[in-house]
Amino acid sequence: MPSLRSLSSFASGLLSQVPLLSQSRQPFSISSPQSQSPFPPVNSLQAGVGVSNFEHTCPINSPTSCHNSTAFPDSCCFIYPGGQLLQTQFWDTGPSIGPSDSWTLHGLWPDLCDGSYPTFCTQAPMYHNITAILSSASSSLSTSNNEPSLLEYMKTYWLPNRGSPDSFWEHEWNKHGTCVNTLAPGCYSSYTPGSEVVDYFTRAVALFKELDTYKALAAKGIVPVWGKTYTRAEILDALKAVTGQDVVIGCRGRVINQAWYSFNVKGSLQGGEFIATEPVGKSGRGGCPERGIRYLPK
């Protein structure tokens, strides 16, 4: 499947940002400065409890990533240099992946503030046993209301279109998770190897739960149907209602299959606030044509 990165080229000036002092650990939340109905804070279950060893105390008025130019010493409280976080989703139909009424989670990527991106970094350790780490941690991740565990949820909503889930999750962590500086072992008290992995996947899943692409499209009458087409403007308008900001969409030919939500973060990935922002360099055009976009059923 062609990557949307190969379909869209981001271009804008790099905003200067450097690590700053510290941030108070806050409940996970996502909000949009331009949305009339910002997202409510995600509850503790959705945010998970994998951040229990992350004990940096940081100021409530911490600057937001990609919006700061003053040097501060504590990199555990400010995401740098990858300050634009992309929550990416797929709609795979060949073969069909995931539930028929839900998009699937592809990743949480720390892009730089100019839209370029690092990969396979050394901010956090690489791992080759992601499933084992998440399985071992599942006993400490409390659940309620019969909700599935983190790993069980991922087995339904975070799946590859080829290969094994474990290999896919390993790829996402080693390529992208290792580039988040607040996940460095030094940011944890009583560090236990794998803590950062649990935090990364927990936060990615919590964010995904708040970004229901299928529901947003359906609310505007955009549903997967054979023989029906939609315009790019119709799709982008529907998805903008999710966060109040433009969303990047991607297509394979004329078939929509990707959606990217852009965020800056106030604080750490573990406990910070995700603030919806415009995608750098593009206004949600991505790689889809203006008209005749097909949204195929699974």
From TrEMBL:
Its Gene Ontology molecular function terms? hydrolase activity; ribonuclease T2 activity; RNA binding
GO BP term, pick one? RNA catabolic process
The record, for SUPFAM superfamilies, names: Ribonuclease Rh-like
- Keywords associated with the record: Disulfide bond, Endonuclease, Glycoprotein, Hydrolase, Lyase, Nuclease
Protein's UniProt keywords contain Glycoprotein: yes
GO-annotated cellular components: extracellular region
Active-site residues annotated for this sequence: H106, E172, H176
Indicate yes or no for the key word Metal-binding: no
Domain of life, per lineage = Eukaryota
Question: InterPro entries under this entry?
Answer: Ribonuclease_T2_eukaryotic (IPR033697), RNase_T2-like (IPR001568), RNase_T2-like_sf (IPR036430), RNase_T2_His_AS_1 (IPR018188), RNase_T2_His_AS_2 (IPR033130)
> Which EC number(s) does UniProt give?
4.6.1.19
Gene3D superfamilies in UniProt? Ribonuclease T2-like
Q: Which family does it belong to?
A: Belongs to the RNase T2 family.
The entry's protein name is ribonuclease T2
